[in-house]
Amino acid sequence: MDPVTRKVHVRVPATSANLGSGFDTVGLALDYHDELEFTLSSDPLNMAAQVIIDGEGADTLPRDESHLVVSTFRRACSRFGLSKTGFILEAHNNIPQARGMGSSAEAIVAGISAAYAFSHDGELDRDVIFSLAAEIEGHPDNVAPAVYGGMTVSWTDEGHHETLADGTVINTGYRTVNYIVDERITASVFIPDFELSTSKARAALPPLVPFQDAVFNVSRAALLIGAMNPAAITGAHDVNALLLEATEDKLHQQYRCPLMPPSADLIAKMRAHGFAAMVSGAGPCVLVLHAGDADDAIDTVAADELASGHWRVLHLNVDTLGVQVARL
Questions:
Q1: Taking each helix axis from N to C terminus, what angle separates 239-246 and 211-228, rounded to the nearest 10 degrees?
Q2: Relative orientation angle of helices 103-119 and 68-79, to the nearest 10 degrees
Q3: Where, by residue number, does the polypeptide cross the bilayer (predicted)?
Q4: What global pTM score does this model have?
């Protein structure tokens, strides 16, 4: 199949998974983006990928076929019937690496979306992109908001598999639902100057949790959907009080926080002042959700951390669009 264009621009939002109680299921898209441009080579003998990076990861990310965007793009092109070709990838990275803001999900969604845009006319088929992204990532909670925007609740329906022509068996049971987020709700993300790998954070989790802790999280995760869209709830409620309770957690944060004491301290301080703070993804970023303008008040609570030079903060809206592409 020949490509329908020679150049594609992709814009993918950062994401935050879990939101406290929604462990491994809930994700939120943030209005903070990586921008990537793919230009196909006009030389039929050129099969190489040339990678140009500025911003986050410019000094650490690979610039060859092992780059996650490149390997994902190659895989998706093959899936969509495009022949292998050389290309230039120009990545303008804003999303921090290994901090819990969905950098790997962004890379995967970017690569697939670009391949789709090169192989199809018209709008993106987000369901196709989500399914392949979840398959590559191995779980859907971060890729879902990157694809659809807003807040998503995702799950895996085990037992749904498909065998490809080459004999590869893939999981086709990834599912997600996209929820409306009240436009008053904003996110403050505190980004530290240290990293935490997802594998280490995952290894800290116990194989079993107490039954009462599971029930606790079920109640908070159920409340979270309403707290993020209070217009769906009858009666008058303090939205920020709902957010504070809905983001309580007993499944993962208490086990991971010893790996990131500064993050744990900041979360405790924020919550003591009534702000719905939690670990962003696997950490070590700290996410604070709030309805209404509270940027100055949030910064005041974290004044010592910000003054230390080890933290910076982004005050962000919720991204409602998800991944965007333009054929150039």
A1: 150
A2: 40
A3: none
A4: 0.94
